[in-house]
Amino acid sequence: MVSGQTVLITGASRGIGKACARAFAKEGARLVLAARRLPLLQELAAALRADFGAETHLLELDVRDRGSVGAALGSLPTAWAAIDVLVNNAGLSRGLDKLHEADPVDYEEMIDTNVKGLLWVSQAVIPGMVARDRGHVVNIGSIAGHQTYAGGSVYCATKHAVRAINQGLRLDLLGTRVRVTSVDPGMVETDFSLVRFHGDRARAGQVYRQFPPLRPEDVAEAVVWCVTRPAHVNVQQLLLMPTDQAAVYASHPRGR
Hints:
Layout: E1 6-10, H1 15-26, E2 30-35, H2 38-52, E3 56-60, H3 66-74, E4 85-88, H4 104-132, E5 135-140, H5 153-172, E6 178-185, H6 192-196, H7 201-205, H8 216-227, E7 237-240, E8 245-247, E9 250-251
Parallel strand pairs: 1-2, 1-4, 2-3, 4-5, 5-6, 6-7
Antiparallel strand pairs: 8-9
């Protein structure tokens, strides 16, 4: 059960993070919501309060900034400081170009957000979990952490890194009661493609037309399910795919 527990979600303003916030609020959790865009967090907090009576604490936070992450999480009010569940969701992809032709700025943004950001938040939160001998870290990975596709070499590398970090962290925490899970979805209909294609709505809109993709709510339900298993059960990895997608580039065109 997560009722009354404090859950920190990064990248909470949209997509999977927003869906996780709603799913945990429905279960009675107290939420620390972090994202770069505070107005979106404020809108979400108001909706969660109206729909579920949820308590929230908001952090305007860019996970790429190690100093800001440490300062923000190190100065949480006492009532919010003991994080029971961490959902490392903040992440993105930029571009779909060949490695030798892509913009290095895109590389940096993906690595700084998907890998370093996860590390900075984890390092700020996990010591408290270890000290209390309880907690759960959920890292949102991807099918891209299992398979590599053309034009996605750097993004896939970051998600392979998340998978490796998840496995290493599980070993590092062995002997404690802190659990570690990676939830790795296939195609999910969010702003992912819009961000990848730098705001090109026409191109992004073509991505999800071939078959029904996962919804953010599907992933959020999986996250909550992992967290609510009995204390002696740790779901180390969950690979979640649309029915019509068997692999990154193996899918059945069914239409929406």
